[in-house]
Amino acid sequence: MKRTEILKYFVNILAVVLTGAIAYLFIAYGLHYKNLSFIAVHFNLLLSVSAVIIGIITLAGVLFFVFGKQSIYRLIICFLIFVDICASVFYVLCATGLIGKINSVEALRSYISATGGWTAVIFILFCFLQVVLLPVPGSVAVAVGVAMFGPLKCALFSFIGIFVGSIVAFAVGRWIGYKAVCWIVGKDSLDKWLNKIKGKDYLILSLMFLLPMFPDDVLCFVAGLSSMGWIYFLIMITVTRAISVFSTAYSFELIPFTTWWGILIWVVLAALVALSFWLVCKYSDRIDAFIKSKFKISKRKR
């Protein structure tokens, strides 16, 4: 093995170890403040559980890199970076004592209102990173945003961050190309989705962006590598992101998970989404031809 390859090998392993260590340190220092009675009572247990979980994730990252599973290794790195961000926020909340003062959704929203616009800017940035870097489902970000801002502001802030992130991801796929997207999302994942949409990229991608069960962050990079044009992408991403973000935000507010009827509604909605996608896939050729004829789409070279 050449010296440069050995150095690259060492740097990759060091990267996953350092991101894991940073996450644990922020969590441990935050727990040491013992602002909440729950933390004070279960301090040793929380410290041990945090160490075990982060240790397992870090070890998994090292092993996946050693055995050549690059896509999973990169996913773990991105996840640990996300944990680092959350752990640093947790530390700040504990160090300032705010975690003990914010004991309800109303108190959280009142505190956010008092901080001005900085919290909104940070949330928008998080939604942007969720698309281009962080392996966090959009629905999770929206759920957190609803608790912080309420459904309307959450939907607006989420849409801004996700929309800009989607454009950046599409541009990376279109202008930088296959190798760059491979590094970001992993070759196996990218090839899988390219094969799924081959010949039906306008229809299939539009539906995947609209339905909540697909990794729309990865699909933005995939769209950049497809035959989809800029105008269609901008129209499609505006419509689908607006529908998905606003419907998800208000769904979390209006349909609770704590009641039997709320759970029943979510089950029915999930079944309807699955049925809709199955029907569209079954008649995908006809619908794809219809969409292309309406937009006068012609094949172009990649």
List the defining traits of the structure above.
disordered C terminus; mainly alpha; 302 residues
| Contiguous runs where pLDDT drops below 50 for at least 5 residues | 298-302
Q: What share of the residues lie within helices?
A: over 70%
What is the strand content?
A: under 5%
Q: What's the pLDDT, averaged over the residues?
A: 76
Cα gyration radius (Å): 22 Å
Please report the number of helical segments.
Answer: 16
Structural class: mainly alpha
Largest sheet: none
Describe the structure.
α7 packs across α9 (151-176) and α11 (187-197) crosses α13. 27% of the residues are buried. The two termini are 37 Å apart. The chain is mainly alpha-helical. It has 16 helices and no strands.
List the helices and strands and how they pair.
Layout: H1 3-31, H2 37-41, H3 43-66, H4 70-96, H5 98-101, H6 105-114, H7 118-132, H8 138-149, H9 151-176, H10 178-185, H11 187-197, H12 201-210, H13 216-225, H14 230-254, H15 260-282, H16 284-295
At a glance:
The chain is an all-alpha fold and 302 residues long. Helices cover 83% and strands 0% of the residues.
